[in-house]
Design goal:
Uracil-DNA_glycosylase-like_sf, 9 helices, alpha/beta, Uracil DNA glycosylase superfamily protein, Uracil-DNA Glycosylase, subunit E, three-stranded parallel beta sheet
Length: 253
């Protein structure tokens, strides 16, 4: 395992000073103590969970940017772990576990992964195990590493588009590829939704990530994506074929 703690160390005092609460409020986190970038109506805030990188992951699942729900869960867990006296590495790991695609989104994600054969590819009864006892196989992240908000609302990848913002482009085209290069295995890459796939397609064109291991066409698992099932049905055959080729190539080495 590997983790980056430069930014985490900087924000440690502010994390320790967060209120002891079962649920943090936006005023606790969306403030000057955690603001790390601002431009064109966009605000980027720190969150600890994407600092932890699983260098031995065999599957990498990528969202657009952490939303408020993930951000709140990550900070709340970090505060709790620090109070317990956990090591900094353990704090970041527990924050990652707490914030990775929680709730209905995780359920939808697991169902689609299983339907296109990901569980079989890794000899699992269900992809649900990736979020539990087989977590060692999984790395979750975002093309924009930290939470992004517009007027206090989650950034969704539109208005502005990522390539229209120098701030967002920096994270998507510089920070994100460097994170992937820290992973030492030949991993399966799962971009969640059209926005992520568009960024990854550009990175493939630039030779920064390998195309053959990307599940392009995988829908975003959010319940807000009302076209999720239709999108998945349309892409399912090709997604299964990519997974099968991934398995065949692994077996050759």
């Amino acid at each position: 395992m590997f983790f980056l703690n430069t930014d985490f160390q900087r924000f440690l005092p502010s994390i320790r000073n967060l209120p002891d609460s079962d649920l943090l409020e936006k005023k606790d986190l969306l403030n000057e103590h955690f603001l790390i970038g601002k431009a064109d109506g966009l605000e980027v805030y720190y969150a600890p969970h994407n600092e932890f990188i699983n260098c031995h992951a065999e599957i990498v699942i990528v969202g657009i940017t952490p939303g408020w729900t993930q951000m709140e869960a990550a900070f709340r867990q970090a505060k709790l772990s620090l109070q317990k006296g956990d090591s900094l590495e353990q704090v970041l790991l527990e924050s990652k576990r707490a914030a990775s695609f929680t709730g209905a989104m995780r359920k939808n994600l697991i169902e689609m992964l299983d339907e296109c054969g990901v569980n079989t590819a890794f000899s699992l009864s269900s992809s649900r195990l990736l979020f539990g006892e087989c977590r060692r196989l999984l790395h979750t992240t975002s093309i924009i590493k930290y939470p992004v908000f517009i007027e206090g609302k989650n950034y969704t990848g539109h208005a502005p588009k990522i390539h229209q913002s120098a701030l967002l482009t920096h994270y998507a085209h510089n920070v994100f590829p460097k994170e992937l290069h820290e992973i030492e295995t030949d991993f399966l890459l799962v971009p969640l939704g059209k926005v992520v796939s568009e960024v990854m397609t550009d990175l493939v064109y630039k030779g920064m990530i390998p195309e053959k291991r990307c599940l392009f066409g995988f829908p975003h698992p959010s319940g807000a994506n009302g076209h999720r099932k239709k999108q998945f049905h349309k892409a399912k055959a090709e997604l299964k074929a990519i997974v099968e080729r991934f398995v065949d190539e692994r077996e050759l080495f």
